[in-house]
Amino acid sequence: MKILNIYNYNLKDISIRVLDIKHISEDEKAMMLKLLGNERREYALSIQDKNPAGCLERLAAGYLLEEELLQRGIDNRELTYLRSENGRPYIKEINLDFSLSHSGRFAACAIGPKPAYADPSHHMTFGIDIEDTLLHRNKDRLLNIAKRFFTEKEKKELLNSDEDIDLQSFLKLWTKKEAAAKASDIPGARMISAELSNFSFYSIKEYDYILTLCTGSSGK
């Protein structure tokens, strides 16, 4: 059985896959669970009772990762998942890095070469964030987020004289901040409030999602 609605991209030698989970069947869920290694399976199922939707998002993101690894000839039964001091996951045994994200009906996985200068416990690498645009229709909530986390320059660019906010512009900036937090292995709240001019970004707006890849420092 093959899951449909997987969108594939390649940016800067990084493979990105997006899965639409809206219409996934019970048989497809079972197939994904069967493919996952014990650690990713337990991570997804740990919230099944309290948050079934979140469980499916975790399951889908883990599936994208481990199916990609299997396609590269890497047996997920031989992998050890570790976390940096700030919580970024990485795999001990392979010279590949990955980043996962999920939001509403979409899950995403990016996988690519680990930077040569990367310290496996704390490193600047790449990160992705995806946002389901249909989940973000409350402009008052978005305005509060912008006022709390965005720099003055960013707020001026996003807000008009009536303090109205453009949804697409907000989500593009928000995904940049989330992706940069993952790429730099800096706690999210601190990174979200930071200036982004020293990072490189590639954004994709398709279907009902916005996805951004951050490849770390731009060298500025």
Give the secondary structure arrangement, pairings included.
Elements lengths: L5 E6 L2 E7 L5 H10 L2 H8 L6 H20 L9 E3 L5 E3 L4 E8 L2 E8 L13 E6 L6 H11 L2 H7 L8 H18 L3 H5 L6 E8 L2 E9 L3
Antiparallel strand pairs: 1-2, 2-6, 3-4, 5-6, 7-9, 8-9
Helix pairs in contact: 1-3, 2-3
Low-confidence stretches: none
Would you identify the CATH architecture?
Answer: Alpha-Beta Complex
Total strands: 9
Give the fraction of residues assigned to helices.
25-40%
Measured between the Cα atoms of the first and last residue, the distance is 47 Å
What integer is the average pLDDT? 84
CATH topology: Ribosomal Protein L22, Chain A
CATH C-level name: Alpha Beta
Radius of gyration: 18 Å
The helix tally amounts to 7
Structural class: alpha+beta
**CATH superfamily, called what?**
4'-phosphopantetheinyl transferase domain
Strand content: 25-35%
Secondary-structure element pattern, one letter each: EEHHHEEEEEHHHHEE
Tally of individual domains: 1
